[in-house]
Amino acid sequence: MRKIWEPMLMGRQLLLWMVLGSLTGALVGLVVTYFLKLLFWSIALTNAWPLWLVVIILPLAGLVTGMLIHYGAPDAAGHGTEAVIRAVHRHSGQINWKVAPIKALATITTIAPGGAAGKEGPSAQIGAALASALADLLKFSPDQRRRIVICGIGAGFAAVFGTPVAGAILGIEVLAIGDLWYEMLLPSFAAAVMSFEVSRFLGLHWFYPVTSAVLRLNVWSFGKLLVIGIAAGLAAYLLVLLMDGLHRQVHHLRDKRRWWPPIFPLIAGTALSLLILMVGRQYGGLSLPLLTSALLGHSVPTLAFWWKLLFVAITLGLGMSGGIITPLFVIGAALGSVLAGVLGIPLAIGAELGMIAVTAAGANAPIAAIIMGMELFGSRLAPGFLIVAVPAFIMIGNHSVYPSQKVRLQKSPWVPIPTNISLEDAPETTIPYPWVRRHPKPEPTPERIAP
Question: What CATH number should be reported for the domain holding residue 164?
Fold first, then answer.
């Protein structure tokens, strides 16, 4: 009898989570769409400000952001998705409902005046908070709550990027390095598709320039793509190091020296104002004009990727609010464009490949990044996306813009790390350099026993 009923019970489970995922996606798509419209309206308003006003307002905006987070919802600090990953792993997806409005406001007060962050982290956190509230309403068990929150993450990503397939997978892949929760793929996809459709119905548009240039794969082009992938992994690694260093310093001063937490976003805003006076406003905010220019095949400044990387590290490392994936897009596209000029490949193709490679490395999500590349730019570069994403994913090593990711994969036996723990909980390990020959220790000589 069990063999007869088992498929029916499995079908019931599948149908249940398809319905729950779709319901979650519709709710998330509705809220995230209006959050994004408010954010874009705010950006359009501040874009008309003169430079002197931006330089004055940005530190004040940092202070307002810091106070919103400190007194409203401390989980709203940083780039959003990180707090959601931690909630999934440590609190069964339980998220304070106040995070959603505070995160939305803090992100607007960060990005609109010129803070360098993205829009997807807050959207994912808003989606997860709404899903958690829905779990409270339906009185879900901890495991059910975790599942529906994952649907909320994927729905948030899908609404922001306009990529339902990649959004669904990204919402799962960012949870753990080298692991996918297969039974959540279809519910997450249902949530992502519904969120995407609701957002499109409400007037949200997504635009990514697609070049008609062609890259022929051969031995030489394969080598060039490896160079882009390795460079992208190193760029993502540098971003993580800078953000982590600033974050550690903030914790030290806040916990040991008792500094008032909102002072750090104020410092971030001041530093960004000085940088804007030095290099201009194009590296603050979302930097979508810079991204679009690179994807169109126009040349970008040689150090554009570095300046954007520095802006992002200061913004998020010192406690302002926003996402991290859009900045990875911009850093990768700028880096790929510059490398393409050096390597002799079309600039637009280099920008597309660099964008996907840095995203794969920074988020430790190569599968979602490759699929995102195909959704945004078509399947013609699918082999190229694979060739750049995998080396980038390897080169960043045991690091991530999401330190709460669980470790399920040993990327290299030469850089060991314990599995089944989060990156932030992993102990410091001594790297056994492979070129140093290690002689085995001699076995101890047993003591002679006198007759």
Answer: 1.10.3080.10
**Total number of domains in the chain:** 2
Neighbours of 30 (CB within 10 A): 17
Beta partners for residue 118, in sequence order: 323
pLDDT at 350 over 80: yes
H runs (alpha helix) in 202-343: 219-255, 263-279, 288-295, 304-317, 325-343
Is the CB of residue 39 less than 8 Å from the CB of residue 108?
A: yes
The one-letter amino acid code at 286 reads L
Q: Give me 188's structure tokens.
A: 């997450």
162 torsion bin: left (phi>0), alpha (psi -120 to 50), beta (else): left
Q: With the C-alpha atoms ordered 292, 242, 58, 128, is the resulting torsion angle positive or negative? A: positive
pLDDT reading at 126 higher than 90? no
Whole-model pTM: value is: 0.91
Q: Determine contact, residues 355/161, Cβ cutoff 8 Å.
A: no
Query: What is the number of other CB atoms lying within 10 angstroms of the CB of residue 252?
Result: 11
Q: Specify the DSSP class assigned to residue 443.
A: P
Asked if residue 179 and residue 256 are part of one domain, the reply reads: no
Q: Of 138, 166, 201, at which residue does a domain stop?
A: 201
Burial group, residue 419, by CB count within 10 angstroms (0-12, 13-18, 19+): middle
Give the 3-state secondary structure of residue 176. Answer: strand
